[in-house]
Design brief:
This protein is α/β, with parallel strands linked by helices and 231 residues long. It has 2 domains: 138 residues, 3-Layer(aba) Sandwich (Rossmann fold); 75 residues, ACT domain (Alpha-Beta Plaits), CATH 3.30.70.260. 27% of the residues lie in helices and 26% in strands. It contains 6 helices and 13 strands. The chain has a 6-stranded mixed sheet with strand order 2-1-3-6-12-13.
Length: 231
């Protein structure tokens, strides 16, 4: 599967041009993309990069690639990222790393947001394999938890605070907040889920990237497949 991740990363190179500002998420596929840029892009020194991922930032720095602070920018050219799962309408779940709030900022400020995946992460419609991860203020935990349980009770919703496996203490996000994993037996309609969770006081954002991606690059054993948004 690692080779498919690398194939997806290589397909992203065709979008790169001199002097661009490129956003990068986290994960193995993005790691391959950084390495490929370093090894194969002749104009890499003219480019700048932003990332919400400490791991990706360290990799960029180790390759002597210019890394900017995206908080000082209002627009970037492209943002590339992987995901846990993406559907045929280009909606994606990015629950694993817990940095989705900042990843969504970069994705939304990009002229084009492109998701890079191998075939196993591409599905016709999103399902309940992965939770919806909600970043929320610690003081809002009881309110947000009880409200989600009430609003989505018919979907057999289950919630758990993401905890450190060794200490069982809550995982604290880079923004100083809690991460609440929300599991459903049946996934609610995505538009309503997106709007409802984001509207709750105390919620920063959630890990459903609803109608944000411009394209999805899917690496398969038979080659590269690209889906483009019709909206």
């Amino acid at each position: 599967m690692s080779e498919l991740k690398k194939d997806a990363a290589r397909a992203a190179l065709s979008f790169l041009k001199p002097n661009q500002i490129i956003g990068l998420g986290a994960g193995a596929t993005i790691g391959h993309l950084v390495d490929l840029i370093y090894q194969e892009v002749s104009f890499k020194d003219s480019m700048s990069f932003v990332t919400p991922s400490l791991q990706t930032a360290k990799l960029l720095q180790s390759r002597s690639l210019t890394c900017l602070d995206y908080s000082e920018l209002s627009e970037i050219d492209y943002h590339f990222d992987g995901c846990d799962q993406v559907d045929d309408d280009l909606n994606a779940l990015k629950s694993g790393a817990g940095i989705h709030t900042d990843e969504k900022i970069c994705a939304t400020m990009a002229k084009k947001f492109i998701i890079l995946v191998d075939k196993d992460k591409s599905v016709p419609v999103l399902n309940t394999t992965f939770p919806l991860c909600v970043e929320l203020l610690p003081n809002a935990l009881t309110f947000v938890t009880s409200t989600i349980e009430s609003l989505f009770s018919k979907y057999q919703v289950r919630l758990s605070i993401r905890a450190n496996g060794e200490t069982n203490a809550p995982v604290i996000s880079a923004n100083g907040n809690f991460l609440l994993d929300v599991y459903f037996d049946t996934l609610p309609e995505l538009g309503a889920l997106n709007a409802t969770i984001k509207s709750l006081p105390g919620v920063l954002d959630h890990s459903l990237f609803y109608q944000i991606a411009s394209k999805v690059i899917i690496a398969t054993p038979d080659g590269i497949k690209i889906l483009a948004a019709e909206r």
